[in-house]
Design brief:
3-stranded antiparallel β-sheet
């Protein structure tokens, strides 16, 4: 009996390992390695993978706080930046990426799709949770409404998971826990 349990555990581990290895397969993909793998999101495209090993990582540096503070301030750390002109994610052939909501949001943080198709958007800067309903012919929401005024709205989840959630939970920026709405 104990032997059978061990065989089941070992078999389960083997199947899990095979699934992980299959998911990590990069056959047919272009793989960037070494220093070239450290790039920004502008180079993201379908079929491109990055392999970064411990040897590729830069050596740790001793802390030097004052130069870093100056660098963060000069770079505008903590402030929203304007989206570069014509900057859009690259999509696989046959797919199109476009802007869903172009205005009316101060600092959108997270989107969640409800089971009925509504899109809930946490707007951290605007202190709101908005609902976008329906999609027009040009790919924009047909309706937009305010769901909740919540300063620092950050994340959204539905509970219980599945096709019929009863509650919406919203987390707030720099606030522990979640608020049930």
């Amino acid at each position: 009996m104990k032997h059978d349990r061990w065989m089941a555990v070992i078999g389960g581990i083997g199947i899990a390992a095979a699934l992980v290895l299959h998911a990590a397969k990069t056959d047919g993909m272009k793989v960037m390695t070494g220093p070239q793998a450290f790039t920004n999101t502008a180079s993201l495209s379908p079929g491109l993978a990055r392999k970064i090993t411990a040897q590729d990582l830069p050596q740790p540096q001793p802390p030097a706080m004052l130069p870093k503070i100056g660098m963060y301030l000069a770079a505008g750390f903590g402030r929203s930046a304007a989206r570069p002109e014509n900057a859009m994610p690259k999509a696989p052939a046959g797919f199109k990426v476009d802007i869903y909501v172009a205005s009316g949001l101060a600092n959108p943080r997270q989107m969640r799709r409800a089971p009925n198709g509504d899109i809930f958007m946490a707007d951290t800067g605007g202190g709101t949770v908005r609902i976008f309903r329906g999609i027009s012919a040009d790919g924009k929401p047909q309706e937009s409404s305010l769901y909740a005024s919540l300063p620092g709205a950050f994340g959204i989840n539905f509970y219980p998971p599945g096709p019929d959630p009863q509650w919406v939970y919203v987390t707030k920026h720099q606030h522990p826990g979640a608020i049930r709405l």
